[in-house]
Amino acid sequence: SEQINAIASKYSGAVLLQKKLKDVEPIIRIEDVDGARLVLEFADEIERMLGSKMKSVKRLADTAEDADLYHEYNASLQFDYFNALLVNTMDEEGNFIELGGEFPLEENEHFNKLSVNTLMSDIQVPTNVYNKDPNILNGVYMSEALNDVFISNFQKDPTLTWQYFGSSAGFFRLYPGIKWTPDSNGVVSFDCRNRNWYIQAATSPKDIVILVDVSGSMKGLKMTIAKHTINTILDTLGENDFVNVIAYTDYVRYVEPCFKGTLVQADLDNREHFKLLVEELHMKGEAKVKKAMKESFRILARANGQGSLCNQAIMLITDGAMEDFQSVFEEFNWPDKKVRVFTYLIGRDMTFSENIKWIACNNKGYYTHISTLADVQENVMEYLHVLSRPMVINHDHDIIWTEAYMDSVLFKNKAHSLLLMTSVAMPVFSKKKETLSHGILLGVVGTDVPLLEVMKLAPRYKMLISFSSRTLAPAHSPKTISKWFAEN
């Protein structure tokens, strides 16, 4: 016991702390506090802070919708914008290259000491998207109106971090503007449409069954494309979604037998688990999709019977389908068509394209043809636009908060650090009368909120003190601090 006491005294610093407290004893006093009231005060402060972020995002959404309302699409539009990858880049003759004009950048303490432009946003475009495509140019031109709102928001709320607009066309407008750095291969793989905040804001929760053809005809490149398609679909799901993956030939096989007959939450662990299992798929036999389709409808019907209010969809990934499916749809999905069926025709062979297209078009889905790995990303994203249509038509402007996630943060010295974040986002819809019934999603606006900023409003030392219901405040004390310290 003496040794334990000696070690505790040596390493806890208790003696030194008591001495320091004695030094300030004349100017402090003990004061009782109401712990419950303190927690309510924390809650009010946090609510005000988060409410301010939501108002900023709402202003961005309103401005983007109004800008689109008065913008007339011009297929031949010529417009130079600041491309985040190309800004401040010169050619051999010392002239700024196209889309890479002079873009002043200054180190900013608030943004991790990165060099940023707080007077302007700039545009990031993934490598697989043509940066002068008419849809990109019109969207960038229209969204220029957001610059003033970005700046105004930041002036009203200096705690704001990154603000952004992710377009359904693929470009990403970011404020403050930065110089974007590609990966080691010179590729910009970041696509805002894959981010959780975009997907959650653009669609409501989803129940998804992925059906993949693993018959002998799917060997080689076809199966590589199919696996990439499955992984890309899984990447579009979040914790509010439920999913299962079924492989089929002439029989039905769940890739994870433990999940047979049910849907599981599409959290990160389950998504990664499915990806590992998909990599192990082997091809053999003849494709008989009718059994797999029936099994998929049964799973979704079971989820619906348990009170699911989610969008429900089947994703069919195959290189062809010869069977007659009408009887399946008549039994399980028609006339209400509560389950959408999206079809992905894999490979260059178009022999069965009409069959595959018929399946999607007669079940409120979407047909797409994927012949190369490069086609996967853009084609998979189309299903999100289809699922977002009811929200757009009804103008359901739901503000969403993502679950907390770890995000990579870049610092001035190019070092990366992981930071716990949440994002607040809101969908942006077209309000044009001529397209209102089509349900066109323009994109998603949002801002990031580091959870550290939330924690600052409820300091740990205050939380601890609120549980003890006591704190220290400046004044003279009738008790000695050392005695109070011992009692508490």
UniProtKB/TrEMBL annotation:
Q: What molecular function does GO assign, one term?
A: voltage-gated calcium channel activity
| Localization in the cell | Membrane
Task: Report the principal subcellular site.
Answer: membrane
Q: Which CDD domains match?
A: vWA_VGCC_like
Instruction: Determine if Transmembrane helix is one of this entry's keywords.
Output: yes
Database matches in InterPro entries: Ca_channel_alpha-2/delta, VWA_N, VWF_A, vWFA_dom_sf
One CC-aspect GO term: voltage-gated calcium channel complex
Membrane topology per the entry is: Single-pass type I membrane protein
Q: Where is the VWFA domain?
A: 207-387
Q: Which UniProt keywords apply?
A: Calcium, Calcium channel, Calcium transport, Glycoprotein, Ion channel, Ion transport, Membrane, Signal, Transmembrane, Transmembrane helix, Transport, Voltage-gated channel
The UniProt record lists the keyword Ribosomal protein: no
Which SUPFAM superfamilies did the record assign? Answer: vWA-like
Q: Which PANTHER family match?
A: VOLTAGE-DEPENDENT CALCIUM CHANNEL SUBUNIT ALPHA-2/DELTA-RELATED, VOLTAGE-DEPENDENT CALCIUM CHANNEL SUBUNIT ALPHA-2_DELTA-4
Q: Which family does it belong to?
A: Belongs to the calcium channel subunit alpha-2/delta family.
- Identification of the protein by name: Calcium channel, voltage-dependent, alpha 2/delta subunit 4b
> Organism, per UniProt?
Cyprinus carpio (Common carp)
